[in-house]
Amino acid sequence: MSAESDPGWKGDAHPRQEGPVDLRLAGPALAAWATAVLVLDVPLAWSLGVAGVCLVGGVALLRVGSGRCRAPVAAVLLCVAASAVSAGLHGADVRRGPVPEVARRFGTVTAEVELTADPWLSRPRVRGDRAAPVGVLARGEVRRVGEAEGVGGGEGAGGGEGAGALTRSPVLLVVDADVPAPGVRGAAPDARTAWLRLLPSTRLRLTGRLAPPTTPGDRTAAVLRVRDWPPPEIAAGPTAPQRLAGRLRAGLREATEELPSDARALLPGLVVGDTSRITPELDDAFKATDLAHTLAVSGSNLTILLALLIGPPGMAGLAERRGVAPFLGLSLRTTAMLAGALTVAFVIVCRPDPSVLRAAACGAVALLALATGRRRSLVPALATAVLLLVLYDPWLARSYGFVLSVVATGALLLLAPRWSEALLRRGVPARLAEGLAAAAAAQAACAPVVAVLSARVSLVAVPCNLLVELAVAPATVLGFAALGAAPVSMPLAKALAWCASWPAGWIATVARTGAAQPGAGVDWPGSWPGALLLAAVTVALVLLGRRLIRHPWWCGALALLLLLVVVRPAPLTRAVTGWPPPNWRFAMCDVGQGDATVLSAGPGTAVVVDAGPDPAPVDRCLRELGITRIPLLVLTHFHADHVGGLSGVLRGRSVAAIETTPFAEPPDQAESVRREAATHHIPLTTAAAGEERRVGPLTWRVLWPQPDAPASPDGPNDASITLLVHTAGLRLLLLGDLEPPAQQQLLHTPEASDLSRVDVLKVAHHGSAYQDPALLHLAAPRVALISCGTGNPYGHPAPSTITALRSTGATVLRTDRDGALALTGSGGPHGGMKVMRD
Fold this sequence. Notes:
The chain is about 45% helix and about 15% strand. By secondary structure, it is an alpha/beta fold. The longest helix has 27 residues, at about 490-515.
């Protein structure tokens, strides 16, 4: 049958006529990409040698070779040669100069640094019982450097203007919280804010200590930790394009200032990639649902704007084309010029760094798809974009963002149309088929790379991406409209931002809801062998799916099974896993090196004592236990391993009150708790010895701290709230992190007589060696529970403590080996108390 007699034939000139996929440029592009990955770390002489051999081989093959493979093989060899030269020169440029040499000696220098990207805040981290202070990180390029001798107070430590050697070395700036910002006198409270407002291309004159990069193999010659003396200074302001971009971005931030918290944080990220307001909690939700791509500047941002200009797919070159341009009567040539101008404006506003250039290139490929509707020419276009970008900036070859962009675009070009057609043939509505095929193809292609980054595979990524698809375009368009209107009319910009807040809020809601599901993801090996394994599993599932799609009943049954795995209804989970056990009374969550315990006060209701060091584990534990209402959250003291996970306890739950110790140390953690409580409008109360409370079947009395107790020698630990709890005839003693001095004083209080022969002891301070033997023998618990992290550096629990507990007849269980623990049954001499493990 001839092509013309084929019912699907539209004619050679038709813009939507398809043909075989053209993969001729794919081989050279992939070869150049792989070469850049391998050559960046090798000596320049080796890379030039590889380039020479490939160049000679390619030219010789073109001149004397024959056969069909002559041109493709020659193209691969020539592209490998070009990539080897580019990667070798770029790699050598990072490794040479005085900066790497001084970094190997951990020397202190005075330097003039040009910022190459927006500064950002480091993520809060808990180290032991302390929270590492949140500092400012920034990418920069050292332009002038000189070693500083005797820095610390002598005049001239910073060196004179123009002193030092000229260089161009990329560095990572680390700015601690006590370092004043340029132009801000002293370490003012808003110093971090001032640092975050610095624009790329700003030149700073500062003093700091160089160290080798923490991640070998990336585009960083050294890490430069900035010192507070002499104070950093601004040597030169940002360039005009960066000032313009800064004003526009600041206008968008001002326009979104009064929006609800999620939309306020999310909208600048959706529009221009400004994630400065994204909280760690919201960021984790987007990562858990594989929606993090919406927070980064990507080709889709540009594609949406250009689609608004030129109209629906496949109609850009037709007389009946649609969009803003034909509505205004603009010719094709004028429309093309406007599209180019819009692309340039996009690059300027979103900052002309390599990631934005990558997004513009990928957006141009998608634009070509919209303009022509022909896939046959799109794969060569994508390959050309990859080849040029890798030659221009070989470091992109090692960028996970670059990998994800290319892989996702390739999946949308090659897999999605075929999957969409298969769904259409089986009666799926066109819009649903296109959206489902696109989301599934992108997820299937990107999942192995994401698994390397997060060591986790999301089971909710496809439905979450489908649910946000319709909201991304209006949020982006309205956000860009607010961005453009802000310099002209702030009221109009605020009105547009308010309209954009609805789809932006929907996107955040989908991310939070998806991440909150108990089975939102499964752990996976975070390595390239793990990625290959996931790719093999994905291929197997695709092949199986091709057979199953012919059987709708099987598809429905598997979809229902997947839904049950993700949602994990409590009755079903309990029947399958036995966790949580029915009628549990007390649970100790496995939160790593920290404390989080739960006292049942009825169905879905519990009193929670401490929150652990991280929001995710305690949130997961409470979800598994089915806790939605918390009449009281007790924070025994303000060490980070007890309060760092506070936001996880508050996530999606009703908390009536928070009770804390009166000893507000460390002050930064105490202030963090007060700030979090104020944000959620939760009252704070202070515990006092003798206080008694009841919630349902649960009663408890506060034993410590005593109001007249002397200043504790161990600070926050000896100020821990200590509770004696009664539930279902069981007596539980929760000691917080009390050290021996406070434990000994507790034995001399009027309540000491109530401490004998308890059923359960929550061992103090993660089972450390610092325990009072008299208290352990008086309590003589039937069960001793210890909360500690696997492989923690403190040696918790101490062997001496375990021995002392067992000598009293106690059964000792610990979360690092036994996981989460739950207590069931009742107390008394003949009680049927049981401890269940997760």
